[in-house]
Design brief:
The protein is an alpha/beta fold. Helix content is about 55%, strand content about 10%.
């Protein structure tokens, strides 16, 4: 295509002119990708697709290095309104055509298995990385993701009235002196996927918005698997079957990390427009985890955000993301604070299994008991926090977090994460590793 061959990625610093010039080039690249998609069996398909995607992505990095600030301020009206990331990537496409995929393109892409995807989701990661890399824009975007979700707000009145909401894949209910959030995906041993994403975030939102309790408990539901029948499992990480089948989008990683997981760690920002406002801090509570059976991958990531963990003495934790071919959320940012650098590297890079009863397990978990004593220990722990005053504990968690991981540190980490995870999500290594897993489960 002549438009591709003759294009020069020159920045004039005139937004309208650059937008027109680059968008025409990206449109030509997009057309070329669509043509290639119809000829997948051609021997040069993979090489040509790679080359077109590479030059298109590189030109977007050049464009965004100059104009990301203009785009974000235009879309958010100079940061006067909040837009969640899953909406922002499509709003950007409307403002600057082809800088990110359209909803229609992603809808088609989501129907493809992971090995057959065209790689267009990479542009979402590049775009969000550019926004998050700017301290002001990135912090504002983090704050947008800490607002209560629409699903939670739509259910808030019912929850306040009944004290119970079953979202299907997640349940939230009021108890005597705490609110319990349950991840409920027993068919997949409480793995997380597109179907658990918004229900779990909404359940966490409601637990934080509840005026009846100051403490939350996070745990997994009971499962029916013959090996674990009627036992609770904290979480088995990302649903590898769905990932292999292409049913988990790239945006899933970021929505989860900046939504559900981050809200447990930092609270919800429901009133103030500025999370840094000392006089109007985010609404946050103490979170206690019930680690039953195991916490794999994403389950372990949640544990690293909790204030207190009551664990089954036979339970274990693993972070197999690197061996799968992806980055384990913000675990790289947090795990070392519990078990130091070397053990963190062994867990993340080499798949080290951390048994609850071992030395490293005791550095993560607070109470280690028999499985049948979990409920009793949870009740006792909640009472102990209430007896000594929950407000002091809540402010102390805030002070501890400030000394360990400021919002700005999280933002900077996410700017790298959104860039690198996009490449991981679409890598041949991930597909190869999932293929091995798929063959193993079938055999």
């Amino acid at each position: 295509d002549k438009k591709i061959k003759n294009f020069l990625p020159k920045i004039s610093k005139n937004f309208s002119k650059d937008k027109r010039n680059f968008s025409q080039f990206w449109e030509a690249c997009n057309s070329q990708i669509n043509i290639l998609a119809k000829n997948r069996k051609h021997k040069l398909f993979e090489n040509r697709l790679y080359n077109v995607n590479k030059i298109s992505t590189l030109s977007k990095k050049i464009f965004l290095s100059y104009h990301a600030n203009k785009i974000y301020n235009s879309l958010t009206k100079n940061k006067s309104k909040f837009i969640r990331i899953e909406d922002l990537v499509y709003e950007a496409n409307k403002l600057v055509p082809f800088i990110t995929p359209s909803k229609k393109q992603i809808k088609i892409e989501n129907k493809r298995s992971l090995s057959n995807k065209l790689g267009i989701e990479l542009d979402q990661g590049i775009f969000l990385s550019s926004i998050l890399s700017d301290p002001l824009n990135g912090s504002h975007l983090c704050e947008a993701m800490l607002r209560p979700s629409k699903l939670a707000l739509d259910s808030l009145e019912e929850f306040c009235s009944t004290g119970y909401i079953n979202f299907g894949k997640a349940i939230v209910k009021e108890k005597d002196n705490f609110t319990e959030v349950i991840l409920n995906n027993p068919k997949y041993l409480n793995a997380e996927d597109e179907f658990t994403l918004y229900p779990l975030e909404a359940a966490i939102d409601l637990a934080l918005l509840s005026t009846k309790s100051k403490i939350c408990i996070l745990r997994g539901a009971k499962v029916n698997h013959p090996k674990y029948k009627q036992k609770r499992i904290f979480g088995s990480g990302i649903n590898l079957t769905h990932l292999y089948e292409g049913k988990i989008s790239f945006m899933w990683y970021l929505i989860r990390e900046m939504g559900a997981v981050h809200k447990v760690y930092r609270g919800v920002n429901s009133k103030s427009n500025n999370l840094h406002n000392l006089y109007y801090p985010a609404l946050e509570k103490l979170w206690i985890g019930a680690l039953e059976t195991f916490a794999i991958g994403g389950g372990c990531q949640f544990l690293l955000t909790l204030d207190h963990i009551v664990a089954d003495k036979n339970a274990y934790m693993t972070l197999p993301a690197r061996k799968e071919g992806i980055i384990p959320g913000a675990a790289n940012l947090r795990l070392w604070r519990f078990v130091a650098d070397r053990v963190s590297r062994q867990a993340i890079q080499n798949g080290l299994k951390i048994n609850v009863s071992d030395y490293n397990g005791k550095r993560i978990c607070d109470n280690i008991v028999n499985y049948n004593l979990i409920e009793k220990t949870l009740s006792k722990t909640v009472k102990e926090y209430h007896n000594s005053g929950v407000i002091g504990a809540t402010f102390n968690r805030r002070a501890l977090r400030f000394s360990q991981e400021t919002l700005d540190q999280f933002r900077e980490y996410l700017s790298y994460y959104s860039h690198d995870q996009a490449y991981c999500h679409l890598s041949k290594d991930l597909i190869s590793n999932l293929q091995k897993f798929w063959n193993k489960t079938k055999n």
